[in-house]
Amino acid sequence: DGGITQSPKYLFRKEGQNVTLSCEQNLNHDAMYWYRQDPGQGLRLIYYSQIVNDFQKGDIAEGYSVSREKKESFPLTVTSAQKNPTAFYLCASSIGDRDGQFFGPGTRLTVL
Amino acid sequence: EDQVTQSPEALRLQEGESSSLNCSYTVSGLRGLFWYRQDPGKGPEFLFTLYSAGEEKEKERLKATLTKKESFLHITAPKPEDSATYLCAVQALDMRFGAGTRLTVKP
Asked: What does the alpha-carbon distance between residue B7 and residue B22 come to, in Å, rounded to a whole number?
């Protein structure tokens, strides 16, 4: 079955620690995205990548980093510089940037 | 600055009671408008893409329409399983999402 996976589903970390969220897709999509969702707010774009080894910052990239070494994978690192990291993180992929996006199940990160 | 506003924030309907959700936008150079459905604690599910004013798309009880300033998601004779948050997003320079409309359909 084709799809997009994120792991883990729940993640707890201590303040000041970096943490990496996994995102893998087997849809052969070129474009991948990371969003953050907070209660009562729309999804906000963190980073996106339209091709391997290339990515661009979204609206709220500060305190986050990404890599795109393989077409299938787009991991997100939440660094200690992110001031309010507790949130629901969503990864998505699409054929191109004008196509509908397919989302993973999300990772809920809680920083204690 | 690009903006996407969805209304109402929440909508409660009786089963079979048709209604519409609104997504108004202010963007420079619309490249696409997208509708998604999101169930609690899950990732959004893609529903429709609309590219130009006058375009319409349908799927089961849902119909999406687009004008130059807004999009509507019409829900005809909804069922309880249609209860979810419906998200609108616009693609211009980047993708921008609205805050969503939380729909509850009572049996």
From this structure: 5
Percent share of chain A, pLDDT over 90: 84
Residues of A at the B interface, defined by Cβ within 8 angstroms: 6, 33, 35, 40-45, 48, 58-59, 90, 92, 97-106, 108
Rounded CA-CA distance A42/B87 in Å is: 8
For B1, residues 6+ apart whose C-beta sits below 8 A from its C-beta are: none
Q: Please list the ranges in chain B whose pLDDT falls under 50.
A: none
Cβ of B46 under 8 Å from any chain A Cβ? yes
Q: Residue B79: phi, psi to the nearest 5?
A: -115, 160
Q: CA A24 to CA B39: how far, in whole Å?
A: 21
For A76, left (φ over 0), alpha (ψ -120 to 50), or beta? Answer: beta
Q: What are the phi and psi torsion angles at B82 (to 5°)?
A: -80, -5
Indicate the DSSP class of residue B74. E
